[in-house]
Amino acid sequence: IDKGIVLSRKKLKENSQKSFIGKYKTESRSIEISVKNNKQVKSSILLKDQIPVSVNGEITISMKELSGGVLDEKTGLITWELVLSPGENKKVVFSYEVKSPKDEKLMLE
Length: 109
Description:
Blueprint: E1 5-11, E2 17-21, E3 24-37, E4 43-50, E5 60-65, E6 70-72, E7 77-84, E8 89-101
Antiparallel strand pairs: 1-3, 2-3, 3-8, 4-7, 5-8, 6-7
C-alpha cells in the first residue's frame, strides 16, 4: 500500500437501474474509481477491479463501459494502466448489465 496514492471507489446511483421485461430482469451498475497521486513524482499505477462472472447459463453479464480498461472475460478482471503526474487525479468508470430470470436471487454488491 502506497500512502502517496489516494483511491476511492463508489457506486454511481444515477446509472444504476433495474427493469423487468418478460420473464427476465435486468440490473445495471456503474462504478467510479478515483485515483490521486499525492507524491512529488510521476507514478505508474496498475489498477484492477472485477465484474461478476456467471456460471449459470440463464444469467448473462455484459459490459457497457470500460473507460479504456481491458477486460478478461473468463475472470471478469478489468485492468487499467495509469500514469499520474504529481497532484493529478484520474477517474475511471465501468458499467455492466446483468440479465437473469425474475425469480433468481442475485448478490451484486
